[in-house]
Each structure stands twice: as C-alpha cells, then as structure tokens.
Amino acid sequence: MIISILKNTALGLATALLSALPAAAAVGSNSSRNPITVIFFLTFVFVSLAITVWAARRSTSSTSAYYTAGGEIKGFQNGLAIAGDYTSAGTFLGVTAMIYVSGYDGLIYMIGFLIGMPMVMLLIAEPLRNLGRYTFGDVVSYRLAERPVRAIAGLSTLVIVIVYLISQLVGAGKLIELLFGLPYVSALLIIGGLMTLYVGFGGMLATTWVQIIKAVLLMAGTLVIAFLVMAKFGFSFEALFLKAITVHPVHKAIMAPGSLVSNPVSALSLGLALILGTAGLPHILMRFFTVKDARQARISIFVATGFMAVFYALMFLLGFGAIAVVSGDARFIDEAGKVIGGNNMMVLHLASSLGGPALVGFSAAVAFATILAVVSGVTLAGASAVSHDLYARVVRRGKASEKEEVLVSKIAVVGISIVAIMLSMVFENQNITFIIGLVFAIAASANFPILFLSITWGGLTTRGAVAGAGVGLLASLSMVVLSPAIWTQILHLKGAAPVPYDNPALFSVPLAFVVAWLVSVLDGSASGAAERAAFPSQFVRSQTGFHIETVAGRN
Amino acid sequence: MTEGREYQLMRHPAFQRLSTERLAITLCLAALIGVIYFGFIFCAAFRPELLGRPLSDNTVISVGILAGLAMIASGVAITGVYIVWANSRFDRLLLEVMDATK
After folding, report:
1. Position A8 pLDDT exceeds 70
2. How far is residue A295's CA from residue A287's CA, in Å, rounded to a whole number?
C-alpha cells in the first residue's frame, strides 16, 4: 500500500510540474525557467522516494528503527547527514543573498554556524549519545522527574521546529514560484507533501540517506559555481574582490562588518545565539542517536565540521561572486530595480550568468533537495518530540506500545507540516537567514541551558530545569515578537518596537541559566535532593556509556 | 548494568584521573573557541574598521576576509585536536578502566 501511495504521488507530482512547464515558458524567456531544472528535480524526487520505499520496507514500526534507524548509521555517514541537516537553504540561498546585499556581514553568520559545531562536540555530543535514546528529552529527564521535564523539552522543540520550518519553506516557496511559475501556496504544498512522505514512511533511515545525497549534491553544486566564479576572474582573488568593490553601491564597505553589526549588542547577541544554538537544535541533537556509540558520535562531528568548512569557504566566493557578476546585469533586475524573485534567488542568478540554463537547473534542483532534506530532518525531530516526549511519556506515562507511538509520530508529521505551511504564508518576505538566526536564539535559550546543566551540574533539579527552560523559551520568544523584525515589519504596529534588538540571545541565554541555577539551589524538596544524589551515577554513565549496548572503541 | 559497577568506576582512581583530564581538555578547547570567536565578534562590533583594513597596500582583500577563513580553519583544527586525543588516549584508557572494574 505504501509503495502504491508513493508511486502515485511521484506520478502526480511529475504531471503537475511538467504541465506547469508551458505556463512557465510563457511567463518569459528568463533562462532560469527551464526543463533541465524539472528533469534534475524529478530525478532527485524519484531517487529519494525510492530510498523512502526501501527504508519503509526495512520496517519502521519499531520506535528504534523509526526514530534513529536502529542506531546503525556509521560515523562518516552521520557526519555527512549532519552537514546536510546543517547546511540548509538558509546558507546556500540566504547567505549568498546576505553577502550580495551587505557584503561582509553575511560571513559573520556563516562563521558562527561553523563554530557552533566544535562546541556541540566538546560540551554535549558524547554525554548526549551515552545517556539518550531518541530525543534530547531523554537526556534531560535521565535523573529528573520525567513528565514536567519532557513536557517543557517537547514544547520548546516544537516551537524551534516550527520556526525553523518556516525559514526553509519560505525559501522553498520562493524557489518553486520562480522556477516553475507555480504559485507560492502550491509550492509550499508540494514541499510539505514530499516531506510528509519521506518522514512518515521512511523514518530516520530515509531521512538520513536523503540528507547524505543532498550534502554531496550541494557540495558539488557549490564547487562548480565557485570554480566558474574564479575562472571568470582568471583565478585571481584580487580581481574578484576588486570587481565586487567597484560595482557594489557601498564599495569598500563590503569588506568590513557593517549595518548588521552597527549595534554591538546585536552583534554579541547573534554571536552567542550561533555559538550555543547548534547545541540546542533538536534535529542536530537527534542525529547523535543514530550512531552506535560516543566514538562514532565524535567522528560524525569531525566529518561534518570538515565538510562545512570547505562548503563555507566556498560560500565566500559565491557571495562576493554574486556581487561581482550579477550586480548591474539587467537580466536579473525587474522594472522596479529589484532582484527578480527576491534576493534569496541570488545564487541562481549567479549560476545562470556563469553556466547558463544547465547550471541553473542543477543549482535549483540542489537548492530544492537541500530544502526537502532539511525540512524532513527537522520535521522528524518535531514529530518525535510530540510522540516520544509528549505523547508516550507525558500523556500515556510510558504505557503506549511502540506501534502506537510510531503511529502518533506519523500523525504529528502531518500536523507539523500543516502548521508550518500556514505560518509560511505569513512570513513570505523575510530573509531566511535572519529567521534562522532567531531559531538559534530560541534553541540557545530554551534547550541548551538545561541540556548542558543536566549533563554537567549535579545540583540541577526538576524545578530548576523546568523554570530555566520555560523562562528561556518565553524570554526569547517574547523578545523576538517585541523586536523590530516582528513588531514593525510583520505586525506593522505603530511606534518603535519595545525591544530594540533583533536577536534576544544575549539576554535570554544568561537569564535561562540564572533561573535554572537559582530555582535549583532554592529547591529544598525531597525529590530535589534525590535528583542531586543520582548525579554521580549519571555522570559515570555519561562518560562511559557502559550501560548501552557497546562501549566506545570496542566492537 | 548493575548499580555496583558505576560506584566501582566512580571510585576508581584511573577513572577519576581520566574524567578530570577530559574535563580539562574540553573546557580548555571550548574556552579557546570562545576567546577566538568572541574576539572576532567584539572586533566586528566595536572596531569594524580593523577588519576592513586591506591586508597590504597592493591588495583590496581585507584583514576580515582572512580572519574569517582563519576562524573556519580554527574550528576544524580544534575539532581535530579533540578527536585525536579522544580516539587515541581517552578511549584506550577508558577501556582499561572498564576492564579493570569488570
């Protein structure tokens, strides 16, 4: 049955896209609307659906297979998948757009994204692998009262997942709108439908392989574009940057931090969000449960970091290449003087200018694959928070069968997709990298403090953890809503925004830590004392992992 | 997975030494990243003109571009240092302790 549903969906999608072609061709002779894109895209969809069928056949009815692919993913594969999860459309499309608009500022985001990785490895990864099974809620509730802790962990995971999905879906919607001439809403529905299929039927195994393929494709696309940029400038960095400085409206200022960091508080806040946020992103944390032990977990991070370093270094070239090559090219500017399809489409215009329709087709398919893979990973993380933390443990108090839990997870996949699609219509015109900055801030404020404290500090109690996570979540969310980005740009409220900073992390992260600490210290309850007493045993397990199937380094 | 095993490990001097060593290494490396990264962010926030200065008189490439690449490289290098230590020394010593407390 599954197979036939998948087959029908693929066919339906192919027909829909192919029938959109003539319409797209009629819209204009813009080289970015071309059949090659459709062919690349359909190939990716076909291959990824085939993987989903394969994964679904290998049974996704046990929780372990569904959430973590049975812990059988190799460290190297998981490293690629983490890189895949992490190098979202926000980087490929958004960072290029950001560098195109403001030059150096775009680099600051990228550097923060990368620097978050070693932090995950040093502070979180191995204890996380040693203590958890499916979600980071497992780890935080290891010695704390399960229901309140999982409730708050599940809630903050859901919030992060939804906001992250918005950032990705906005990019996806714009991309399909531009490429196939399909309306934004239909584009959102296609992406939402595909991700529901991957995650719902294929679980973690399918999601992981979609992620790996996407990572390789993304690297290939980036390498080709970067190579062509350099070729155009005679492989001289000097010539590339000189041209970029000459044609950009602010000239030399693109080589230095500018408007993005004109406010030092915003800069520090963004920095803090990026460096600590990765360690609180549920879909990244979840990836550590797909490998068998702590050793494989650290190998995954090393592979992921190496991969991303190369990718981000190339993104420097793509961003400045976009300024140097695309600026002033009338083909990519509409009557109002704006970039066609919005700034987020910059990388495709660059591809179009350098490599013609074939390269645009490939790059668009890559961007697409990127979005699909990332939304799948994020959705799976959200669905497991709903089914594993909220449903199985909080609502059913551990009495749900595995089958029931997996079913709830699949229903959650559908629910999360619907909510995310509806919200994506509201946030249509936000820069996607900016939204991702906010996701990192919420993750750094709500998830990271209690995860870190629960692993490292024996004094943390249930009350402290719930208070810390709750305050972190509320503070970061409300500061975002009261910031100029939402208050002024989305809600169109009169007057200055109550909070002048775009990124809340500088305030909300320390606040979450202080609240968690203070409430724990003041917690005189007997349960609190028992939780403190349980720490040494948890510590030994977090260091050794001896209670799980294997010990690091031994097969 | 008996309760006894954990307490045996916990009191084992080799395990204590090992976990102290791990704590020291991870904290040092994390602090190093923090210093490098926030040094960069502070510079971007308070002295952006330092990053905007050209590397030399005959180039337009700024100090900031090189600093950015160096930041990325340092992220990989620090990850590399940790993994080499953990895969060779930590895992080996941990196995020894584990075998000793069986």
Report:
1. no
2. 14
* Dist CA A81 CA A97 (whole Å): 25
pLDDT (0 to 100) of residue A521: 95
A170 vs A45: CA distance, rounded Å: 19
Q: Is A354 left (phi over 0), alpha (psi -120 to 50) or beta?
A: alpha
Q: Which residue of A has its CA nearest to B97?
A: A544
Alpha-carbon distance of A475 to A471, in angstroms, equals 6
Surface of A (86-145) touching B: CB under 8 A: 104, 107-108, 110-112, 114-115, 117-119, 121-123, 126
- How many other CB atoms sit within 10 Å of the CB of residue A499? 17
Q: What is the mean pLDDT of residues B90-102?
A: 82
**Measured distance CA(A261)–CA(A322) in Å, rounded:** 22
Q: Quote the CA–CA distance of A156 and A446 in Å, as a whole number.
A: 6
A351 closest CA partner among A359, A341, A342: A359
- For residue B6 the two structure tokens come to 């954990």
Residues constituting chain A: 555
> Are A546 and B1 within 8 A, CB to CB?
yes
Dist CA A30 CA A436 (whole Å)? 30
- pLDDT class for A21, splitting at 50, 70, 90? very low
> Which A residues in the span 291-320 are in contact with B, Cβ-Cβ below 8 Å?
295, 298-299, 301-302, 305-306, 309, 312-313, 316
Q: Which helix (H) or strand (E) holds B1?
A: none
Q: How far apart are CA B25 and CA A122, in angstroms?
A: 9
In order, the DSSP letters of A522-542 are H---HHHHHHHHTHHHHHHHH
Subunit contact A305:B79, Cβ cutoff 8 A: yes
Mean pLDDT of A275-293: 91
For residue B15, the chain A residues in CB contact (below 8 A) are: 540, 543
R_g over Cα of chain B = 21
The Cα–Cα gap between A131 and A138 comes to: 7
Q: pLDDT tens digit string along A203-232?
A: 899 899 989 999 999 999 999 999 999 999
Which of A76, A104, A262 to mutate to test binding with chain B, by most B CBs within 10 Å of its CB?
A104
- Nearest by CB to residue B65, choosing from A255, A261, A268, is A255
**What is the structure's pLDDT at A331?**
83
At residue A142's C-alpha, the angle toward residues A137 and A148, to 5°, is 55
This model of the complex carries an ipTM of: 0.91
- Partners of residue A333 on adjacent β-strands: A339
Residues of B in contact with A270 (CB under 8 A): 41
> How does DSSP assign B15-74, residue by residue?
HHHHHHHHHHHHHHHHHHHHHHHHHHHHHHHH-HHHHHSBSSTT---BHHHHHHHHHHHH
The predicted pLDDT at position A27 comes to 37
List pLDDT tens digits, range A508-539: 999 999 999 999 999 989 999 999 998 988 88
Q: What is the pLDDT of residues A58-70, one digit of tens each?
A: 766 788 888 888 8
Q: Mean pLDDT score of chain B, rounded to an integer?
A: 87
Report the distance separating Cα B70 and Cα A300, nearest Å.
22
What letter represents residue A148's amino acid? P
Is the pLDDT at A314 greater than 70? The verdict is yes
Q: Report whether A172 contacts A371 (CB < 8 A).
A: yes
Closest approach of B83 to chain A, Cα-based (Å): 7
Q: Give the closest residue to A384 by CA, choosing from A166, A143, A117, A69.
A: A69
